[in-house]
Amino acid sequence: MRTRISRHSGPRVWPAPAGESAGLSSRSESRILPYAADFIYRIVADVERYPEFVPWCAGLRVLRREPAPFGEVIWAETLVGYRSLRERYTSRVELDPANGRIDVKQTEGPFRQLENHWRITPAGAGCRVDFSILFEFRSRMLGHVAGAALALVMGRMTDAFEARARALSEEPQQ
What we know:
Elements: E1 3-7, E2 12-13, E3 25-33, H1 37-45, H2 50-53, E4 57-68, E5 71-82, E6 85-96, E7 101-108, E8 111-123, E9 126-137, H3 140-170
Antiparallel strand pairs: 1-3, 2-3, 3-9, 4-5, 5-6, 6-7, 7-8, 8-9
Helix pairs in contact: 1-3
């Protein structure tokens, strides 16, 4: 059973920090899932599998991996697309399994700024998943189109991870 703790009805525009434009959009969502926190963490951390189940993720290539004091850092190139729109970007993914944290920040690509953060914590017999995203496109036109679709994208993306957990939990154990 899924319980949504909060889900904003649309993109939330925050005041831009001094010296930055006001085109930043953000959204956050929390869910209580009936799965162990470490199980959900492994699904979110397994970035190579995203093209198999994440909507609009047309491809992903891990460029390199490095150990870090908190866990591991992955640099990945992602191809996202919807209809005829295709964009490629590179991200730095920080995996901190001991604290249930995954932090992603674009290092190269079409965004002026792109960050997303996952927090996965035990909650009763399941876990709480907090996901947030902050972004601003370099192109105003692309930002306008994407900003309008952010609520749909966000919901479908978190639904995809939940569906992945359900499918993997139903697979026979080897």
